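The protein record quoted in full:
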Amino acid sequence: MIYDFKDIRGVHIELTTKCNSNCTMCGRNFHGIVCPKLKLTELSLKDCKRIFSPEFLRQLKNMSMCGVYGEPTLAKDFLEIVKYILACNPKLKLDVYTNGGIHSVDWWQELAQVLNNGKSKVVFGIDGLKNTHSIYRRGTKFPIILRNAQAFIRSGGIAEWDFIVFKHNEHQVKEAYKISKKLGFKIFQVKRTSRFYNYFYEQDPALISQNEQFGKKPFYNNKGQKTGDIELPNNNYYRNDSLKTIKKLIKEYGSLIKYFDKVPIKCQARKTGGIFISATGLVFPCCWVYQQSNYGIFYGVRDLLELNEANALYKSGGIKFLSAKKYPIKHIINGKFFKLIEKSWYLQDLKNGKSKVCARHCGYQLDMHKRQHYNSKNKIFEKKRLPYQVLVFPYFKERGNYLYAIFKRKDLKFWQGISGGGEGNEIPLQAAKREVFEETKIDSEFIQLDSKTTIPVENLGNYRWKGVLVVPEFAFGVKARSKDLKISHEHSEYGWFPFEEAHKLLKYDSNKTALWELNYRLNEKQRKERNGQVIRSSKARLLEKRV
């Protein structure tokens, strides 16, 4: 299974498919009009109480109200739903993503009072200034958005300004940042959209306009007539730098499709313990799988490589079995659809049913979504990956002998210790402790080893540092209090082995050397302790004779 019900910590929910805007690259926009197949609906307070029990809400750490097709604040029961959720879990981090173009000042003031736990915030999508904002966010008015944001901020609300950069507004980023600081926005976030890059991996006419050029997306009026183009910014700094990786992958594999065929998948929903719930109450692993499942119905897509998720939905009995209005969430995530999605990750290629959207968003070497964020508060949205690795072997003493835990990689099928890289400002020991806890939940005594090796950067997936070709790997041992470990999704199994057996199973010489050192240190310590006991016993007997 993708995850256990008790491991769910986050929910992305779309409260409604209704919207007051018609953004050019939004999934609801079909050649200038609202997609005819999109059902305009919303979740009510009654629906949310049925879907989210107080017990379930209390186990969550975060919730995101962000539309795939709609504006969340347009839901009729929006304020009452937020009040119910936070009453059940006052410590929940609840983020609302909005275009900010509707409701009165009083309404936004009330929302600020509701979201008053110091963790929750409202993210306003404001893509430019007065003369540019509505070029992309069509149907919204810049002065009204700023009025509403000010009302929210002045009433104590925490606000973020998200700015998607295009050619027509890139010259206004710095000015917008200054305005955001003046108005009291806590965060100003530049978004480097990756939506232009579908040029490299989508071929179906329903998804790519005829004669479409890279870096340009056509926009249409409400009669379906093309009236211009939305374009990539000229400044490379404001472009999603996944483009470099895409070109490299195309050179290496021949095309992105062939890369999708082969790449191991590391599911982000599994890693974070997140689920997505649609405005019709359907439960999916994430919003991307949900949206991909609609390609055939909404847009008339016929490319079979784009329909593997829809086929999995059909094979599992259809959407009725994903409805949280009818079935508990626990039942749904343990159901056939979730199992088929997970199973698809290990299929030979897209033609045999491997999920294209999973390979695209959670493939080992490419994460276009993660690379789109840059904010003024934290510099880089994600924690900076540091140029070193850590390697850790858990050990357990049983009947006077040491056993060592090693782990079998699910994607590459070999045995290894726990490994990972440093993040943020971590020193190697801190990184080792974090990686071990994330992958096994062990939080105990560490031994830093002398064993050190170097690893080529090309073995580290998508991570690169200027002028760095190899990175050091630091080795550790960690004492386990129990042999019962809870392993992460990266591994298919683990085992506790005596030194000789573990040593034979390990793939890399660096792992073998580190394990040898750990084994030697532990046994040498044990020998010294025994010798010390013998010496102390001899001295005691000698003193007894003298007395």
Summary: Confidence is low (pLDDT under 50) at residues 375-382.
